[in-house]
Amino acid sequence: MEQNWDDLRLFLAVAREESLSGAGKLLRLDPATLGRRMARLEKSLQTVLFVKSPQGYALTEAGSDLMQRAERAEQAMRAATAGVPVQSDQLTGQIRVGAPDGAANYLLPQVCAAIAAENPGLDVQIVALPRVFNLSRREADMAIGVSAPTAGRLVVQKVTDYHLHLAAAESYLAQHPEVSAVTDLQGHRMVGYIPDMIFDRELDYLADLGVGRVALASNSVSVQVRMIQQGGGIGVAHDFSLAATPGVRRILTDAVSLKRAFYLIRHADDRRNARLAAFAEALAVGLRAETARLEAATAGQAAPKA
Q: φ and ψ at 220, to 5 degrees?
């Protein structure tokens, strides 16, 4: 029996999220309503698509087969709409961007606000989470990453390099022994990531410096920066974050200077979507410019008098 696209769209969400609640949040539908729709779909197909348990919804063999066909239909729908001419150069609709919270807190607000100002019909959602986003499950339309993924059907574009240095509050430095070499860090309180919550090897800065104990830790970059600003200790901070963090300065810049990169990651199926491509280009241009602007502002801050 032929199924309409709406049935397949809901089915794909449940199959990818493996739960009614997860799919319901994604689709903004009540889980009970979604459950009834899945039961109706199974009845119309006269087959069982899911094995239901307290752990969630797992696909049966028939469900896996339908998922493959539904994903082909999804790709065909995207391909059919990608080339539809628009009546205006402006972007419209909703676009969701996933990003680690450093980029989400210090860069994306300015960049996305500027894009939205030029496109009044556009709704931009920023999902700030300290983890890798799963674009296959459509957690976001695109994501910013700190390393280039090597698995999955993804399109990866390097956007820009960014820099990090050790930093501390003037108040902390005034009350503690001088830091003139990396070895001096052993006698200071360190601020950094919670070790078992580092979601990308590129973020394990302190381990590379031989720091064992992290006295003040958070999985959030912005929380770490606030800890540093409050005189909590010494930590590695993004240069772009320090432009908006008065009372904090970089230290040991000649000895410790880290460089990382931001990557824009999109699902391969979306490469022909003109709307998402236009937004991705605007986002990449904005991120490069804003990172450069803030890093220049940080580098230009006056050094304290000896």
A: -110, 130
Whether the Cβ atoms of residue 223 and residue 197 lie closer than 8 Å to each other: no
Token pair recorded at residue 262: 């931001």
The listed CATH number (3.40.190.10, 3.30.420.140, 3.40.50.1970, 1.10.1060.10) that belongs to domain 93-160+261-297: 3.40.190.10
Please state, in angstroms and rounded to a whole number, the distance separating the CA atoms of residues 136 and 83. Answer: 22
The yes-or-no answer to whether 93-160+261-297 and 161-259 have a common fold is: yes
Task: Kindly provide the residue ranges of all beta strands, DSSP E only, lying in 121-257, ordered along the sequence.
Answer: 122-128, 142-145, 154-169, 190-192, 216-217, 234-238, 248-251
- Cα separation of 291 and 1, whole Å? 53
> What span, in angstroms and rounded, lies between the C-alpha atoms of 218 and 223?
6
- Which CATH number is correct for 5-82, 1.10.10.10, 3.40.190.170, 2.40.110.10, 3.30.70.420? 1.10.10.10
Residue 305 scores a pLDDT above 50: no
Q: What is the tens place of the pLDDT at every residue in 150-183?
A: 777 778 899 999 999 999 999 999 999 999 998 8
Rounded distance, CA 280 to CA 274, Å?
10
- pLDDT at res. 97: 92
Cα 216 to Cα 206: distance, rounded to the nearest angstrom: 12
